[in-house]
Fold each of these.
Amino acid sequence: MARKSLGIIGKGHVVKRFFSDMAVKDYTAFAEQFAAVYFYNYGYLTDDDFKKTDEFRTVEKRVESLASSVGEDVELTVNVRGSSTTFVDFFAGCDVILDASEGYVPGRLKRENKFEARPGSLYELAVKFSKGEEVSPSGLDWRRDYDQYCVENDNTTDDHKGRIPMNQSDFEKHWQSALEILCIVNEVHRQFPIGRRMLLSFPFSADILVERGKQLSQVVREAHALPTYITVVNEPCMAATVLGSLAPAMVPYLVACTGFDVERLNMIFNDTYRAEKERAGYRDFVLRVRMKGFHDDGVMIPLIVPERKEDQSILAEVLLALDFSRLYSYLKDQVQSYFQRYDAATTSRQVSNALYNTILAAVQSRGKCFSLLPRLPASGLSNGYFHQNVDDVQGMFLVGNHKFRNGKVVADE
Amino acid sequence: MSNSNGVEFMTQELFRVGNTMRELVGTLASASHPSLSSKIDFPSVVQRDETYITLDMMCACAAGKEIYLVEPKKGAWEVRDVTPRRHRYRSLALFGVESVPYLAAGYSSGIVVINLREREQKKVNVEIAGRAENVAFSSLGVIGSGLDTLLLAVHPLVGFINVPLARFLHDDVVTVNRSNVLLPPSTERKWLSQIRSTTEGVYVSHERDILHTDASLRPFDPILSFPAMVCCFDVKEREVYCGTEGGIVYHNSTRLCRTAHPVISAVQAGVYEGREGVFFQGKKRSAVYFTDGDKIMPVSKSPLDTVAGFHMGTTSFVLEKNLTSDHYELTILGNESRIVIPVQGKGRVLTVYGGDFNEC
């Protein structure tokens, strides 16, 4: 079996947490599948500058420790590859790519693990929009946010040494683009509430997603085999839609990682209806249902149908005396406000789990044309993948159950 | 609310969400945003053309109950044991699906399909074959591409069968029954039918005839008849090269030559040392008949006993038994090179198959 390479774009909280969980979760299968982890050098002068960052060093230590715990002969290395002008080097050298990048959010401040908005910033406007406030963007000035950006990204300090900051013109473009998309999303959100991520995250990542989509459309021509591309950029389905619309060849290989939603839904479902399960005689039976839609509050649809057809009668017995619309509304509300129920460590671990399962199934399927992975229906995946319209070739990325075949997404019937 | 109403309710919710997001995307697309406006138009999903990625040149040989794969690695030929399970393998086929190389190997009551890149094996159980001694699948072929790939096989007791490889998606073992038989077996068991699958369709030898069918595998039309039983044949650009009982080599219906050693187990047309020719392999020798003259050039050298071989492009692979050491050697003959690789397997070598093969 040929061991593969995992490429990572971004080194923020999701990536750090994914590798930190190596200490508490069995990552043996990961070490067996991968021989190398490559970080994409998206914004440092040299690879060495990237390697000096705390995030890279932390991941390197975790991976070294994992490799030695699995076996002396297991070689698993971490390195840096490619740059904005040599994206193909990174792309062609990876079997699976995890895109966990995020655009700069002007005015977003982190205080005690929570985000706050600086008054008068673009992020404050997004927060107000998300609360349904009727506010106008007039009076906002990108220069004030730029001043803050310069303070935060001073590459003469040790924290940002070697970093290539955006110049004033690029920052203005990024800021204006985010404002325009924010206003468009808000127009739709006012008529039909979409959620917070489409307002607080997506507008700030949209321009780098477009840039990445353009890069992908170029490099697919040069790569021998296309990698499976997993995005966790918020909102993941919209991120995949942007990438896929610019690089159609990547569509079968594109996955929006949202599996944590269904994991949360199933935990809430089984916790909440414990008594009903016991009364029906299924105390220890784990009910598993499905998720559809997008990974955002207003557009996340719990599907109260069993994951396996044979469990239909059990589900019917458990839910016999319950009012369906109340049950549905309760579960929808609970799953979209999961952060009130679970602590940050638990929700982060759920993200890592979903990523781990998706990455592993994707890599295990590569080079296998006549197998669907994961093999068991019970361990199936729930992620965003391309749903083609019935009447034409167009479509969108929506959450659903799926498997992988030779690195490509295969929808579960 | 009943469960059916519940499903209806959730479906309505989904439509509502889908319409909203579609509206959002439409608004983004029609806005004046310089980077997004013209781009989010959801063009049709254009599949990257992966059909003709050339796989590495490979050769597989079955020696006794073992199968060896010979492939170029870092400028040298490397031999590796890929034996799946110890059966007496009588037929091999190398093929590629979506850039992944596979090897199919036929034995008495089944066919094993080995993924040569990953740890994965699939198996075709042919219940109707039974467990007859010394009878096994005599020839394998492949037609179609991607998930539509069909494995073709011929067995002296079963006949000509096809197995859609997509059946492996849900099961590692598929069982074949009489409904998969497309052509009954020959009445004379000792004459084994052979398969050649090409872009123009599938050719099968059946007693004294060569039959042809298209990708639908129906019907089989006889296109050539010979005065003696067909031992083996090759098809290149619709031209048929055939070796018959008695050692006569034909090009379509024209007699090319008579070999000194009458039993022929392989005939292949190609370019050998820059000249067009027909490679054939008798019981104790292999040779090339050049079509630009009446010259027969031997490929193997004594004291080696040629047992199997094939010729592809500018390279010949000949598996020989060294009568002194009783070991097998695989000779790879290129335009300017002759490489001899010892093969560890013992026992009767039954088949060798390979080449610079493309995606099927």
Amino acid sequence: MSTNLTLKKRSPREFGRYIFFSFALIFILLFAFKIPRVSIPLIVSYAVVLILNPIWPFLYKLKISRPTGSLAIIIGLFFFIISPIIKFAPVITEESRNLQYYIPKVEAYAKKKYSQLANQTYEKTGYRLDPSYLDQGIEIGKRSLGKFLLGLPKFLASTLEWIFLVPLFVFFLLRDNKAIESNLLKICPNSIFERYYSLTHQFGKQLGGYIFAKFVEAAIVGTIITAGLLILGVRFSVILGFIAGVTNIIPYMGPIIGFIPAVVVGLIEYQGTSTFWAIITLYMVANAIDIGIVFPILVSRMVNLHPVVVVISVILGSQYFGIIGMVISIPAAAVVKLVIHEVYNEIYGNRAA
Amino acid sequence: MAESYEREVGKKIENGEGTPEKIKYSILKYFWDSNPLIRSQGDTIPKFLRSVDVLTNFTDLELRTLSKYLNERKFSDREIIFKQNDYGMGLYFIFRGHVDLYVNKNDEETTLIEKESISHLLTLGANDYFGELSLLQENSIRNASAVARDGCVLLGIFKPDLEEMINLYPVVAAKLLQAISVIIASRFFSLSKETKELKVKLAALEKEAR
């Protein structure tokens, strides 16, 4: 039985939906790139919401509604964040105050080492190293430190802004993210609806899993290093552990960046002693646990990317968006991979069979 | 929404059609429905779901929960809902309107334009559902094309919704999966019955041929 089939290939309404939907997406992207003052806290809040996602089934089991649950989570977060801050703030302030007196020590140490090196090269090659190299180096270091200190008030002001913005955003995202999602789905054109829904869902799942895994990983590494340094009785142990945890979020380069301050402190304070080697071993062990156990179990399962792709995307991210770019490069690469995969399947029809 | 009852009757009187003999509404219901603060309760999604036959074992509260996970999609007349061999990931209930299902006999790339090989399978009306296999299968492909007729409204439930429902409302998810299992079981039963009959017929034909 053959039928007379007349179809509207694409109705004007559908065309309108396409235009409206693409404008909405472009608007969101523009907003994210052009108003970083709002979009970055928003992205951070979204990351927090994704980290908190596994809590919901428990709350639903206790028959707690979404608004009440959001409020409870926010209050809980305040408690969990503020109490360690109160506990550790004096330690961190003291350590950073010590850091201030520490910098001349670093300078003296560098000068001593440099003159040793200059003597050695003179003895071996007969070439005298110009001491101005070191002065220049120190000058650059001082200048960048000055720049950092000058930029600090601005940074602190924005942090203050964040302290108000992030909890607010987190609360409303927790409460309303379902509604926001369904509104975006509502305006999606019919002909791409299922594909769009599947894509955003996969992306959300991967991103949520990745962020959660990274958060856990950073916490584990930070805790191991802080505890180890405290046991060894190393100075600045809390700051060093915190730095190691935070920099661990940056893929590949992060652990090295987090290692540098520890090496500096170790060289100056404990050079030649067993403590120095203990610090190095501690970092090695922490990173070995990270690479050998935590990463394969938690992180790599989340985003299935080739290591070369990861390195390239991290470099590209750092070039265009700095440190934040390094952090978001892997999820961004995962999105690109998902989209490419989808387009590939669409064009080459790998889907059938 | 339709015009108010008063205006409707008023128009009839103006046109000289005469008033209806008996007011069907009870007076209380009339005032209840004319309350502007209460939305028309006639065609809400939970009420609609109550009338879907496979969802009979849901309680009202569970239907309301399920309705939160349904995606309302509007299609204009003759608009393609999905094509054969498309990637599918969900089940649609027909809230309003009709849906035509077509099958392309050449199971290759379907464009729905080549009219010769396409045959009309059946037409579904309100309270019907289709695409239930896609909700369960991994990498499911649609085995028929669906085309909307006279502006239909569909309520779709998709894999992500089901996943979230399993996490947050396990009882509702279990009942939905049970409903889908019932659909698939009855379909499988009729299929195996058909196969059996066909086998008998085939055996008879083979006997004849010998």
